[in-house]
Amino acid sequence: MHQRVPVQRTLVTGGVRSGKSRHAETLLKTSAADRPVTYLAPGPVPDGTDTEWADRIRRHQQRRPAGWVTVECGAEASTALRAVTGPVLLDCLGTWITAVLDGIGAWDRPQPEWEPEVHRRIDDLVRAWSAVRGPAVAVTNEVGWGVVPEHRSGRQFRDLLGTVNQRVAAASDEVHLVVAGRVLVL
């Protein structure tokens, strides 16, 4: 796997099961070997009903070095980013936008009612990401390479995550694309 020390802020993107998280962790293990890394987890916390999700989280946790600190930040990734003083890994922006949409009840309301709030939160996340003084790595899913989602909620998620990815990439020093475990620096 490609190993580069992040300049300051690195966005790692790719498809599901492409090796994004493993690559992001490797970047920080290399650049922050002597400092504890804060792992920001904006995804839903397992509640015992979704064993597959709980197993995914457990596997991620087992890969992390013992000295890393995990912060379950949910939709509050911006606040968590501002509080971190050392190396940070934000994994992942897809679960973050899901937490934001869940938190404002977007799935059950017309888009014009909630869209301004989502864009305000995206702006806030980009400002917080821009202020991070590395090493910092954010992980996201690459969207839009597959079929058009059948449901409105899937299309909204895809479009919003595409916007988040573009905005965070523009505020990053490097962007890495991971495909089948191989890394391409964009």
TrEMBL record:
Family: Belongs to the CobU/CobP family.
Protein's UniProt name: Adenosylcobinamide kinase
List of residues binding GTP: 14-21, 41-43, 72, 91
GO BP, sorted A to Z: cobalamin biosynthetic process
Organism (species): Nakamurella alba
NCBIfam families to which the protein is assigned, alphabetical: PRK05800.1
SUPFAM superfamilies attached to this UniProt entry: P-loop containing nucleoside triphosphate hydrolases
Top-level division of the source organism's lineage: Bacteria
Biological pathway: Cofactor biosynthesis; adenosylcobalamin biosynthesis; adenosylcobalamin from cob(II)yrinate a,c-diamide: step 6/7; Cofactor biosynthesis; adenosylcobalamin biosynthesis; adenosylcobalamin from cob(II)yrinate a,c-diamide: step 5/7
Catalytic activity field: adenosylcob(III)inamide phosphate + GTP + H(+) = adenosylcob(III)inamide-GDP + diphosphate; adenosylcob(III)inamide + ATP = adenosylcob(III)inamide phosphate + ADP + H(+); adenosylcob(III)inamide + GTP = adenosylcob(III)inamide phosphate + GDP + H(+)
Keywords of the record: ATP-binding, Cobalamin biosynthesis, GTP-binding, Kinase, Nucleotide-binding, Nucleotidyltransferase, Transferase
EC number of the protein: 2.7.1.156, 2.7.7.62
Job description of the protein: Catalyzes ATP-dependent phosphorylation of adenosylcobinamide and addition of GMP to adenosylcobinamide phosphate.
Gene that encodes it: cobU
UniProt-listed Pfam families: CobU
Lineage, highest ranks first: Bacteria, Bacillati, Actinomycetota, Actinomycetes, Nakamurellales
Active site (UniProt): 60 (gmp-histidine intermediate)
Region (Disordered): 1-23
GO molecular function, one term: cobinamide phosphate guanylyltransferase activity
